[in-house]
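Before the break, one more example. Copy the sequence into your notebook; we will annotate it together after we see the structure.
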Amino acid sequence: MKKLLLWSLALLALLPLRVPIVAAGMMQEPGQRMMLAEADRRQQRRISLNEAVELVQSQTGGRVLQAQEVRGDGRDIYRIKVLTRQGEVRIVHVNAETGAIE
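Here is what the structure looks like once it is written out:
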């Protein structure tokens, strides 16, 4: 009986330690929460590197040799190296935000 009482007290003593962890996400200013929500929306609109590769393959009919994400002119782009059907190696840039081939 004493053990049960001790365990109960120990658990009750630890319970308040979880409250700050749960509340930590709510301690941000409203403006910060809005900025984080906007960043999440922008992240969701992005196309993935795999989607960019598939897009370039379908547009060029070629074989992708290399693909990577790079930052150019203050925006994220995918740099994709393709071997075309004509045997030429081309570099294609895809806007990560819009999926537009540049």
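The helical segments are 2-23, 30-45, 49-60. The chain has a mean pLDDT of 77. Try to locate both features in your own notes.
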